[in-house]
Amino acid sequence: MSTILTFILPLIAAAGGLFAGKVFYSKVNKNIEGDAQRKAEDILKNAELSAENIKKDRMLEAKENFLRLRAEFEEESQNKKGILLENEQKLREKERVLAQQAEQQRTAEQELHSAKQSVQAKEENFRKKLEDVEKKREEAEAMLANQISQLEKIAGLSADEARQQIMDALKAEAESKASSLVKQAIEEAKLTATKEAKKVVIETIQRTAAENAIENCVSVFNIESDDIKGKIIGREGRNIRALEAATGVEFIVDDTPEAIIISGFDPVRREIARLSLHRLVQDGRIHPARIEEVVNKTRKNIDDEIIEIGEKTVIDLGIHGLHPELIKMVGRMRFRSSYGQNLLQHSREVAKLCATMAAELGLNAKLAKRAGLLHDIGKVWHEEPELPHALLGMELAQKYKEHPEVCNAIGAHHDECEMTSMISPIIQVCDAISGSRPGARREMMESYMKRLRDLETLATSFDGVQKCYAIQAGRELRIMVDSENVSDEKASNLSFDISQKIEKEMQYPGQIKVTVIREMRAVNFAK
């Protein structure tokens, strides 16, 4: 019995425990399900509230968009309505203008018709008057012919002979009066123009400072000792022959102490030779291969220096926009000379003179300065042209798109083409001022003598000239005329004609004074 109880009691306890656990878990599950259901209900409520809020927001936004679109539509409709009203107003205005124009056209046609009728009536009257005038002219011509025939019978001369006598008398009187008027005009012009011209020229010269130094055709290379001459000459003269062949100049190594003469007509070549020799002497290695290398390097350096000189010149003068080729030509002027005067120095001086004179006369000073600097670029062209340097310079300036007034001033500064601007005579005058200063140029004696002979020959070619002398270094031409064949009035005309012919046919610096001397000598003998 006890054993059975022992076996049954645990089973009963276990069954009770199971029942109690089941009851507990059922309660827990019910609580969990209740909580889950409440959470679900809360979530649904929140979702419904969110959906309602979103719905309200979307409806509010849609309403705002609708109102905005409606306002824009109304505004656009209002604008289009205004445009339509404006177009209607313009259309009515155009219709009114067209109606006025049509009315004016009808009025003009009526006036034109009336004018045509009036002109036709006037033409008819004029035709009748012209016929009357023609009849009267014929009657007058017949009367004049009758009178002329009567006068020819009375005077014993034909009409042609009388007309010729009157023309000769009038011609002589006109020549006399014209000569007097010309002389009077010249004297009046001299009183004013000469004074003003002298004032401008003197002020221009006084405001320009220039050097009087001239250049020659040789350069002197100084050496420290005569021992270097042997190295320069080389074995059997091979070094000096290589130098002369590479540079194109002549090296004179004589008894002159501590000096070598470099002779050549081209200053660029002389400068290349001088610098090359200087580098060779400093280096100490003097042989044909080294000579050729140094000369080539020096030639390149000189080319660079030419460009640098040109750029510095145009910068100093304040000239802008010059073509690179023209800048290079300006730099080459540094190594050219004209009658011993350095061409670059001469061109700079002419440019400054032109700018000053143009400013005094109220002209374009910058354009005058540009033309003054470029007036002699034809002298540095690397080829040997057949044209004179002035015309060649004008062609180069035209090629590189210079101003037409600058081109004309370059070509006309030696009267080789017609002057078309006020700058051209300024360039000519300033070129003469720069070239005619004492010490500026060294003319050849032959050209100087030829100019004097040409002056005397030109003067003696006129009728009535007995003797002619060019004095004051060609600045004055003194002419003796035959007093029996040349009157005082004709002497004045002769002086004027000779001066005009000199201006047209000769080239000369400055001005030439033409003096005509008419001397009357009465000679008698007492016996």
Automatic annotation (TrEMBL):
The record's annotation in InterPro entries points to: HD/PDEase_dom (IPR003607), HD_domain (IPR006674), HDIG_dom (IPR006675), KH_dom (IPR004087), KH_dom_type_1 (IPR004088), KH_dom_type_1_sf (IPR036612), Ribonuclease_Y (IPR017705), RNase_Y_N (IPR022711)
What Enzyme Commission number does this protein have?
3.1.-.-
Q: Which Pfam families match?
A: HD (PF01966), KH_1 (PF00013), RNase_Y_N (PF12072)
Q: Which SMART domains match?
A: HDc (SM00471), KH (SM00322)
Would the keyword Cell membrane be found if you checked this record's keyword annotation? yes
Q: Which SUPFAM superfamilies match?
A: Eukaryotic type KH-domain (KH-domain type I), HD-domain/PDEase-like
Role summary = Endoribonuclease that initiates mRNA decay.
What protein does this entry describe?
Ribonuclease Y
